Amino acid sequence: MSRGSHLPITPDEADAAFEPLAKFEHVVLAVSGGPDSMALLVLASEWRQRRNGAPPSLSVATVDHGLRPESPREAEFVASEAQRLGLPHVTLPWTGEKPSRGIPDAARRARYRLLDDHARALSASDVAVVTAHHQGDQAETFAMRLARGAGVNGLAGMPAERVLHEGSTVSLVRPLLAFAKSRLIATLEARGLSSVDDPSNSDHRYERARMRSALSDLDAAGISPAALATSARRLGEAEAALRYADECFAATLALSFGNEVFAAFDRNAFRAGPALLRQRLLGSLIARYGGASERPDLVEIEDLTARLQAEDKSTATLGGVMVSSGSRFVRVWREAGRLTQSDLILSPGESRTWDRRFIVQRAADAIGAVKVRPLGAENYARIAGRLAAKYRPPSRAAHALPSFWQGDDLVAVPSLAPFAVASQASLEETGCQLKALAAAAAC
Q: Which residues fall in a coiled-coil region (predicted)?
């Protein structure tokens, strides 16, 4: 390890790292009290002072997962440090029953959900949540995904910036990814500041702790966290190039999205493309139409792509979608049998996420609540005559669509409205609104 890896982060380095935050109106610093996040807190505070009042404004949030008796005291410690630096602080408790298994993943999802809800409740219009993920975290993520046989997308590691939560308007920014943990600790020590210790970080019951221990052995053998993080960064650049190739490939397929009812693309053009781009295209469509179903493994996508290449006609299900290949087109839609979305009651002015595919809304000036439920085969059969036969989507694709009801009356199926015959009763209702989330690929 070089001497420089123990030096505090300089003001010039911090200014360069935090520069991407200047475009936001407000920034929420996610601070747990550990050395990484405490370094983030002090570096961001000093950066703000050097900006002489220029945006963004800063605040601090601590998520109390309620998993250890020390956590409330740790949140109080962060609150006192934030106050000392002149920054407002809020503690966000994770309440309710905790799972008996998969605690780290559940805690991570709860943490991002709480931070997202908090950030969106602020008055600022352009908000980022900032975390203290560093070079070591990037190396651990790379190694864990490598152990699962991840593709380029997974091995690209954590991006410096992304949307915080699917469907959110809040950005997640990680300005410290280029720095070793030792430099964050040195930054605190240079200022005489303390931090708290979370014993779960060294608990070998958890995958990340086990990988952290294993990486220390690799470091001794010359495979350093810095080298792994560099590979992750370079694979991130390769992933960006592949996204460009994805767009070029998709442009050859006559790809359409059928108002998010179903996707369709040219089968022969698809089969003419490189295997990797075929897998990525299919994976992105499964992510887009699979809703709340569990995402398939990459090997499953590889197998299905090979099947589409080998068979002239086929029908398969994967990741909550139906993939139907005919003589000219391949079609993808939500598999109704995998839909677990329960009925939702929407009051005027309310919006909810539905099957992780749509945001369903009730207009503020609408009269009365509506119930949103899957359309289903029986109700689709009742309205199929309102659809133009020439443009009618696959009937099974319609069964998993959200439909709006008042009592026993079907009042709207917004997804099918573009396919309706003009002379028939409308499938839209002004008080019932629908927005597709159009989930990004997760190959």
A: none
Query: How far apart are the C-alpha atoms of 94 and 88, rounded to whole Å?
Result: 20
Q: Which residue has the tokens 């070079």?
A: 135
The answer to whether 69 is a known ligand-binding residue is no
Q: Is 337 annotated as a binding residue?
A: no
CATH no., domain 246-337: 3.30.465
Q: Residues 3-48: pLDDT tens digits?
A: 456 899 999 999 999 999 999 999 999 999 999 999 999 999 999 9
Cis amide linkage into residue 56, ω under 30° from 0: yes
Paired tokens of 89:
């602080």
36 a known binding residue? yes
Confirm if 240 and 162 have CB atoms less than 8 A apart. Answer: no
- Could you tell me the residue ranges of all domains in the chain? 3-239, 246-337, 341-436
The pTM for the full model equals 0.72
Is 236 flagged in the annotation as binding?
no
342 a known binding residue?
Answer: no
284 is in an annotated binding site: no
HSE-CB for 319 with a 13 A CA cutoff: 26
> Could you tell me which CATH number the domain at 3-239 has?
3.40.50.620
The single-letter code of the amino acid at 185 is I
- Indicate the burial class of 134 (C-beta count within 10 angstroms; 0-12, 13-18, 19 or more): buried
List the helix and strand counts (H, then E) for the chain.
14, 17
Q: 410 and 403 in contact (C-beta within 8 Å)?
A: yes
Tokens 């934030």: give the residue: 82
